[in-house]
Amino acid sequence: MVGRIRVPVSLPLLLVVLIGWAWSALSPISTQRASGQGTAAPVVVVPLAGAISPPTARFVTDALADAERRGASAVVIELDTPGGLLTSTDEIVRAILASEVPVVVWVAPDGARAASAGVFVTYAAHVAAMAPSTRIGSASPVSLAGEMDETMERKVTNDAVSQVRTLADLRGRDAAWAEASVREAANVTAAEAERLGVVDFLAPDLPSLLAGIDGRTVEVASGPVTIETSGAETVRAEPGWLDQVLALLADPTVAYILLSLGGLGLFLELSNPGVTFPGVFGGIALLLGLFGLGSLPVNWAGAALIGFGFLLFVLDLFVPSFGTLTIGGLVSFVLGSYLLLGNGAPPALAIAPAAIWTLALLLVAVFALLAVLAGRTVLRRPETGREGLVGAVGTVRRGLDPDGVVFVDGELWQATASDAGGDPAAMIPEGTAVAVAAVDGLRLLVRPATAAETAGAGVAILPPPDHAVRRPTATGPVSTAPADVT
């Protein structure tokens, strides 16, 4: 008979809670009710602030899919971006074009901008609006690998022009200005954008925006749709913690710092094997940094220079280069840091120079600390073996005339009194504090200890039993035996 296994009632409940937590953690977005209690379909507000990157594209596309499942009347993308990656921008544009729900791009709040990639996202929207004190433009493509040759620059620019003109024709917006934004990096204010037909209207706040789009008929992927926002509830989509972590890792400066700290941690682990923490931390940081850089167009020559710099640091541990390898590693590290994302990277996708020099100074500080610790280790008095006995303080157990017995370091030793030059000295009576001057085989050469040496010993020295004296053995100090020393 097979016995039953009784599962505590709390265990299934715990599993349900854990599964629910994991589901919510991996959920692309979390929503917050903002306003409105009407019976109309909700309006989903999606914030898109900062550089457009793979995590940003993931958040926006998932929010659009979630809005379709909710049966939302419209999706409002609240845009404020300095630009971003072309691949991520294309992903957002394709999601907008395929959306069954009308998508409204609103450049807001006041002071926001739709620069570079933001122009493409704005032109792709079914309805485009801007807050009064905002701007749009500068959509010229930039290569992160440095300067492009004339042919490549012409190919990339023409491709971007054809894309933005296609979006302009699809949505009935100004195609000539869109082309100028790409070819000449043209910029306009919100008022100029409305006058030129770049956007449909201006909206200083969300209620004004909803009132402006109410009743408009737009063409979505499935056909014409009339937007109804009167009395609609607004639901604000917020990225979950996983999206926030991915967005943080996709920041070039954060990814670079993690990559550098990971290399430093592994270097410290190799220089001090067994410490464990630097190795574990360095491995995790290195992998997270590589993940972050994986979503960015990295110049692998720069990454190779950074790796080569850390290789020189490790080699300096085993090769007596007198600091040459360390200096070479620092130079390689700094050069690789500047080349990692290219000199032509826009500010939104560039590594902060302050981070580069801070980490370079951190490496210098670490090497200086290691050099000081190594020097202290070399200069420190040995504490074990024959060398460790030199300078030790003990007491005379049998008067030295010049030979006798002393108690040093917890053991009895045969000893000879000597002066500063190592010659036999006058008799040293029993109970006198002595310091070991040298070790001659299994015999100690001692001299009277100074008051400072006696005080600095700081150890109470207990005499052995009267009946026992330690005799010298073949390999060490005297051994314990019945007292028969004469």
UniProtKB/TrEMBL annotation:
**What GO molecular function annotation could you give as one example from this UniProt entry?**
peptidase activity
**Chain ranges of the NfeD1b N-terminal domain:** 43-194
Residue ranges annotated for the NfeD integral membrane domain, each copy included: 253-371
Could you tell me the membrane topology recorded for this protein?
A: Multi-pass membrane protein
- InterPro entries the record matches: ClpP/crotonase-like_dom_sf (IPR029045), Membrane_assoc_protease (IPR052165), NA-bd_OB-fold (IPR012340), NfeD-like_C (IPR002810), NfeD1b_N (IPR056738), NfeD_membrane (IPR056739)
Give a single Pfam family match. Answer: NfeD_membrane
The protein's matches in CDD domains, at most eight in alphabetical order, are given as:
Clp_protease_NfeD_1 (cd07020)
Domain spans labelled NfeD-like C-terminal: 387-448
| GO terms for biological process, alphabetical | proteolysis
Q: Where are the transmembrane segments?
A: 245-268, 275-294, 348-373
Q: Record's GO cellular component, any one?
A: membrane
Give the region (Disordered) as residue ranges.
463-486
User: Localized where?
Assistant: Membrane
Tell me which stretches of the chain form a coiled coil: none
Alphabetically ordered keywords of this record: Hydrolase, Membrane, Protease, Transmembrane, Transmembrane helix
Write down the PANTHER family for this protein, in alphabetical order.
Answer: INNER MEMBRANE PROTEIN YBBJ, NODULATION COMPETITIVENESS PROTEIN NFED
What name appears for this protein in its UniProt entry? Answer: Membrane-bound ClpP-class protease associated with aq_911
User: Which organism does this record belong to?
Assistant: uncultured Thermomicrobiales bacterium
The organism's lineage is: Bacteria, Pseudomonadati, Thermomicrobiota, Thermomicrobia, Thermomicrobiales
